[in-house]
Design a protein that fits this description.
The structure holds two protein chains of two kinds.
Chain A lengths: L2 H18 L1 H4 L31 H37 L1 H16 L2 H12 L3 H11 L2 H14 L3 H8 L4 H37 L11 H9 L7 H27 L9
Helix pairs in contact in A: 1-3, 1-11, 3-4, 3-6, 3-7, 3-9, 3-11, 5-6, 7-9, 8-9, 9-10, 9-11, 10-11
Chain B lengths: L1 E14 L2 E14 L3 E5 L6 H8 L7 E9 L2 E2 L5 H11 E4 L3 H4 L6 H13 L4 H14 L5 H5 L8 H13 L5 E5 L7 H17 L3 E6 L2 H7 L2 E6 L2 E6 L10 H8 L39 H5 L5 E4 L2 E3 L9
Parallel strand pairs in B: 3-8, 3-9, 6-7, 7-8
Antiparallel strand pairs in B: 1-2, 1-4, 4-5, 9-10, 10-12, 11-12
Helix pairs in contact in B: 4-7, 5-7, 7-8
The chains are: A mainly alpha, B alpha/beta.
């Protein structure tokens, strides 16, 4: 584990703790309005100030962490399940099956993802559930390609062949013998994927197509803050920093994992 | 009774717009309990033949002919029957034992998985007892330690012993050993040869060895099947260059450097291995053969029984004219 990876991991752990224990950590009710104290700069009572309705920004951010992490992790899990399944089937069976799946992936890749997400949201309506499903359903192609490439290589290795010689079932060879050996790059991609999904969710919420107020998310706090950017800097700085910190630390973690799980690299580096 | 029966086997690999012939018409019977070796240079088709026995050929392979293992038609077998053939009828050990064990799982997991795959769910204690028995059967003295080890923690010799234990876990009648000693150093090779002999006796196996090393073949097998250009060149109990009837077999024996020979250079067989493609009217070995004459260059020899149980594909068995 290198230093950058440790730093990334530390921040990720912090964010996850914030998400899990949001109600305990938040000093105030994130919904409590106090219009007489609106747009207050950071102070002892409100460490990150208050918003245009007098709500505590820190409490709202902590609450928003929950949404971001949930969306990030669940969306990536959905895309990982789809991607791994299709990738392993394409790689293991090859031939026509491989061609059908991979050409499907190619067609999918010609559609701009953000455009597709926006369109689907407009049709299905914005909600956390829909966002998770839609991001999950639109981001599996890379994982499918990674897994397929790994499986193509591993299925030719002697131990995969030895498993076939022992008369193991195909499903067992695919998921019990090949997949575990292909899992390192998937794990790395999942980590990168979480930051991508967090960014996508923030972007959608910023555009008003994601999490709907009054439920806070990093993206929609930013949106309401942008109208006061010249008078209340804390309304955009803190959610912006949160998004940045989350994305950056997940990327650091992913990059660190990539090196850590690569047997060809020196681990002390 | 013939436990392995190959008739008219042709295997070719599809390449861009053409086919590469690998096995060009092989017919072969091996009796139960026999130990036979298939020998030949790289590219003679011996490994393709071994893979064909268990229907393990890659997707681009095209096969015609027939393979019967213990009375089951391998090419006609469905998925379920094929699973029984692989493991229950025939086990196989490979060239590189280190690469043939899954690096992520312990020996315990791999051997127990093989047992449960064929015998269904087994009680934990029973599984462990069986596994340890198989391991010590395979000549592993500290079976308990090996049982709990991961493949990378074991030496090459131990890995090959583990492979043998796993291959025998489902009680096969046939053991196919594909270059089982090639990746191992010489002292370990001798141990593996002893082990295979012992296992053959104890488990009453039919042993089929695939090798390019005629000494190894002689050490393990009473019958040597020499392949050249996808066909059987000689089939019989050949012990040395003197008893070899095909000039190619004799040449294969001669190229093995021997410790007591005064010669200080390696013998080689001149020329290149003929491709199995060749279908012309001449002997495939004739371009490299010291005895070749006009007949060899204009006529195709067939496999003939020269002595009882000894077949040769040559017009001049033993080089006599």
């Amino acid at each position: 584990m290198n230093k950058m990876m440790k730093a990334g991991l530390a921040v990720v752990i912090l964010i996850v703790i914030a998400a899990v224990f949001a109600p305990v950590i938040a000093p105030q009710d994130y919904r409590k309005q106090d219009v007489s104290n609106r747009l207050m700069p950071p102070s002892k009572a409100h460490v990150m100030g208050t918003d245009e309705l007098g709500r505590d920004v820190f409490s709202r951010l902590v609450r928003g962490t929950r949404v971001s992490i949930t969306v990030g992790v669940l969306a990536v899990l959905i895309s990982a399940v789809i991607g791994v399944l299709l990738g392993i089937i394409a790689g293991y069976f090859g031939g026509v099956i491989d061609n059908i799946i991979m050409r499907g992936v190619d067609i999918f890749l010609t559609v701009p993802t953000l455009f597709l997400i926006l369109m689907l949201i407009v049709f299905l309506g914005p909600s956390v559930f829909n966002i998770v499903i839609i991001i999950g359903l639109t981001s599996w192609t890379d994982i499918a390609r990674i897994v397929r490439a790994e499986v193509l290589y591993i299925k030719k290795l002697p131990y995969a062949e030895a498993a076939a010689v022992l008369g193991f079932k195909k499903r067992r060879i695919m998921f019990g013998h090949i997949l575990p050996n292909a899992f390192a790059p998937v794990l790395v991609y999942i980590t990168f994927g979480v930051s991508g999904a967090i960014l996508a969710e923030s972007g959608l919420s910023f555009l008003g197509l994601g999490v709907q107020p009054p439920e806070p998310s990093w993206g929609n706090i930013l949106t309401s803050g942008k109208d006061y950017i010249d008078t209340a800097w804390w309304l955009v700085l803190y959610p912006g920093l949160s998004i940045f910190a989350a994305v950056f630390s997940f990327n650091l973690l992913g990059e660190g994992l990539r090196d850590y799980l690569n047997p060809k690299l020196d681990r002390e580096g | 009774m013939d436990i392995i029966n190959v008739s008219n086997l042709y295997v070719k690999y599809a390449a861009r717009k053409k086919y590469n012939m690998a096995v060009n018409g092989v017919s072969l019977d091996i009796k139960e309990g026999e130990s036979a070796a298939i020998a030949g240079e790289s590219g003679c088709g011996k490994s393709t033949l071994a893979s064909a026995l268990l229907k393990l050929l890659p997707e681009n392979a095209q096969v015609s002919g027939n393979v019967m293992l213990d009375g089951i038609d391998v090419f006609a077998a469905g998925e379920e029957q094929l699973r029984k053939i692989r493991g229950n009828t025939a086990g196989m050990i490979f060239q590189d034992p280190g690469a043939s064990l899954n690096p992520l799982f312990s020996v315990k997991q791999q051997i127990e998985e093989a047992i449960t795959a064929h015998f269904g769910k087994t009680e934990k204690e029973e599984l462990k007892r069986k596994s340890l028995e198989l391991l010590s059967d395979a000549g592993i003295t500290d079976a308990q330690r090996v049982y709990n080890s991961y493949p990378h923690q074991l030496s090459g010799g131990l890995q090959q012993r583990v492979m043998a234990a796993i291959a025998l876990s489902c009680g096969p009648k046939i053991l196919i050993a594909d270059e089982p000693t090639t990746a191992l150093d010489v002292t370990v090779q001798a141990q593996i040869v002893e082990l295979l002999k012992k296992l053959k006796e104890e488990h009453k196996l039919t042993l089929l060895l695939i090798t390019h090393d005629l000494h190894l073949a002689n050490a393990l097998a009473s019958r040597i099947i020499v392949m050249y250009a996808g066909k059987i060149a000689e089939d019989g109990a050949v012990k040395s260059a003197k008893t070899a009837l095909h000039p190619y077999t004799a040449a294969l024996f001669k190229i093995i450097p021997s410790l007591d020979s005064p010669k200080r250079h390696f013998e080689v067989i001149p020329g290149e291995v003929a491709s199995a493609e060749h279908n012309g009217n001449f002997c495939a070995f004739s371009p490299r053969c010291p005895y070749a004459d006009d007949r060899c260059r204009s006529e195709k020899p067939e496999l003939k029984e020269v002595k009882p149980g000894h077949f040769v594909r040559c017009f001049y068995p033993g080089g006599k004219k």
